[in-house]
């Protein structure tokens, strides 16, 4: 079992007082209630987009009084758990690291299978209009909200425990609990919740997600995104995030830098492709500013959306690395091309599974979990080599890049090829401290 670190709880404004019902009386996240409400506000400093915050970065004196990850996010998450707002206790779910070279992580989560909200839209279209009649986040109660997360008005990070939203202000972006959690601290980032945006990436929202990873300042807290057709279950723009104190397998595999011919001024963004991993994908990192990295990834995602190509995103390493996975599992599933043994597990490979955290729904599958099973499942997610090359060209063009004829390996042997079905062990890359251990 993985050890969960308990953290202090910050008293929430919901405990401090029980205000009279306002708006529609349900205290929801809709336009009827939010403008007349007071919600905690975490305002990150305005100049945060000028540079990517690394380890040891200096924060303002005021921001040091409240730790974003421990005191606010995880502390408030535990507060909501004590209120009984989750559909099950995810901290009791069994978790193990699967023996093998990759270190895939398996979790038995029977509650999520039985109590998770079903999908209410087509799975063959990446772009679909928002439908207010179907479930969306304006229908949840404000008790599920931890705090607003928005850019501040100056160069200091500030936290306001009870900030009025206001009738004429911009639609707030909020961090709320995921009531069907996968892991400890599982939350949702919902950009501009009142704008009722469908599940599609835009530049502003993706930059907000990078800011959240940056503010967390912990490599074991990651954000993920699933497009429609890649196992998003709600067509209302949102990112997921949670804390898991072990490196994901995909974060450890070698990559190969793609040498590009620049069509635009160099912004410092580096694009690489994964090697020796069952799902073909790209890694974006670097950039002279956080916005440079954000714009490159967001433009790539917009291209995939416009071409009806489902995809998943993992935001890793405090926002400094972004993994992009075009995928085709749902398409193969609809065409009857997925092995029945894999279908019987009822595992939908979304961003967390693709990254190596396998959320299993049946005890038998959990007890029998092996590296071979994880590899076979994820291999069904991946585009073929030929199709991936086509999609990679779309992505690079969207990011303002054009691939040159030569590629250089970032780590390992320069002659490495993509892994065959029987995968060799990955070559570790130094993105995590070497003394990080899984506590038994």
UniProtKB/TrEMBL annotation:
<comment type="similarity">
    <text>Belongs to the GDPGP1 family.</text>
</comment>
<keyword id="KW-0963">Cytoplasm</keyword>
<dbReference type="GO" id="GO:0005737">
    <property type="term" value="C:cytoplasm"/>
</dbReference>
<dbReference type="GO" id="GO:0005085">
    <property type="term" value="F:guanyl-nucleotide exchange factor activity"/>
</dbReference>
<protein>
    <recommendedName>
        <fullName>GDP-D-glucose phosphorylase 1</fullName>
        <ecNumber>2.7.7.78</ecNumber>
    </recommendedName>
</protein>
<keyword id="KW-0378">Hydrolase</keyword>
<dbReference type="GO" id="GO:0016787">
    <property type="term" value="F:hydrolase activity"/>
</dbReference>
<dbReference type="GO" id="GO:0080048">
    <property type="term" value="F:GDP-D-glucose phosphorylase activity"/>
</dbReference>
<feature type="domain" description="GDPGP1-like N-terminal">
    <location>
        <begin position="69"/>
        <end position="242"/>
    </location>
</feature>
<dbReference type="InterPro" id="IPR058865">
    <property type="entry name" value="GDPGP1_C"/>
</dbReference>
<keyword id="KW-0548">Nucleotidyltransferase</keyword>
<dbReference type="InterPro" id="IPR058866">
    <property type="entry name" value="GDPGP1_N"/>
</dbReference>
<dbReference type="Pfam" id="PF26216">
    <property type="entry name" value="GDPGP1_C"/>
</dbReference>
<keyword id="KW-0344">Guanine-nucleotide releasing factor</keyword>
<dbReference type="Pfam" id="PF26217">
    <property type="entry name" value="GDPGP1_N"/>
</dbReference>
<comment type="function">
    <text>Specific and highly efficient GDP-D-glucose phosphorylase regulating the levels of GDP-D-glucose in cells.</text>
</comment>
<keyword id="KW-0547">Nucleotide-binding</keyword>
<dbReference type="GO" id="GO:0000166">
    <property type="term" value="F:nucleotide binding"/>
</dbReference>
<feature type="region of interest" description="Disordered">
    <location>
        <begin position="415"/>
        <end position="436"/>
    </location>
</feature>
<dbReference type="GO" id="GO:0006006">
    <property type="term" value="P:glucose metabolic process"/>
</dbReference>
<keyword id="KW-0808">Transferase</keyword>
<dbReference type="InterPro" id="IPR026506">
    <property type="entry name" value="GDPGP"/>
</dbReference>
<feature type="domain" description="GDPGP1-like C-terminal">
    <location>
        <begin position="249"/>
        <end position="400"/>
    </location>
</feature>
């Amino acid at each position: 079992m993985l050890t969960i670190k308990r953290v202090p709880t910050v008293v929430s404004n919901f405990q401090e007082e029980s205000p009279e019902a306002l708006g529609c009386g349900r205290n929801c996240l809709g336009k009827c209630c939010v403008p007349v409400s007071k919600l905690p506000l975490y305002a990150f400093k305005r100049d945060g987009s000028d540079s990517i915050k690394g380890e040891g970065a200096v924060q303002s004196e005021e921001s040091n009084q409240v730790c974003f990850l421990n005191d606010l996010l995880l502390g408030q998450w535990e507060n909501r758990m004590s209120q009984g707002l989750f559909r099950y206790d995810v901290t009791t779910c069994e978790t193990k690291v699967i023996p093998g070279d990759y270190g895939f992580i398996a979790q038995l989560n029977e509650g999520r299978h039985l109590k998770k909200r079903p999908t209410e839209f087509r799975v063959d279209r990446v772009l679909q209009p928002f439908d207010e009649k179907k479930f969306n986040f304006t229908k949840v109660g404000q008790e599920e909200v931890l705090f607003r997360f928005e850019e501040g008005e100056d160069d200091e990070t500030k936290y306001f425990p009870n900030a009025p939203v206001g009738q004429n202000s911009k639609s707030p972006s909020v961090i709320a609990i995921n009531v069907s959690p996968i892991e400890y601290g599982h939350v949702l980032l919902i950009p501009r919740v009142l704008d009722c945006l469908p599940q599609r990436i835009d530049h502003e929202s993706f930059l907000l997600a990078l800011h959240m990873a940056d503010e967390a300042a912990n490599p074991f807290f990651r954000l993920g995104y699933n497009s429609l057709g890649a196992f998003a279950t709600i067509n209302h723009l949102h990112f997921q995030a949670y804390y898991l104190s072990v490196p994901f397998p995909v974060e450890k595999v070698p990559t190969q830098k793609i040498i590009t011919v620049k069509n635009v001024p160099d912004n410092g963004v580096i694009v690489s492709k994964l090697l020796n991993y069952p799902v073909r994908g790209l890694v974006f990192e670097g950039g002279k500013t956080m916005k440079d990295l954000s714009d490159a990834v967001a433009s790539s995602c917009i291209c995939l959306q416009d071409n009806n190509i489902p995809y998943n995103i993992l935001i890793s390493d405090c926002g400094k690395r972004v993994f992009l996975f075009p995928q085709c599992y749902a398409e193969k599933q609809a065409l009857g091309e997925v092995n029945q043994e894999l279908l019987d597990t009822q595992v939908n490979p979304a961003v967390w599974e693709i990254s190596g955290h396998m959320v299993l729904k049946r005890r038998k599958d959990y007890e029998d979990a092996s590296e071979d099973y994880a590899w076979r499942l994820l291999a069904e997610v991946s585009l073929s080599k030929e199709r991936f090359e086509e999609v990679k060209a779309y992505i690079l063009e969207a990011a303002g890049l054009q691939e040159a004829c030569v590629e250089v390996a970032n780590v390992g042997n320069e002659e490495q090829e993509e892994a065959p079905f029987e995968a060799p062990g990955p070559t570790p890359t130094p993105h995590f401290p070497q003394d990080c251990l899984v506590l038994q």
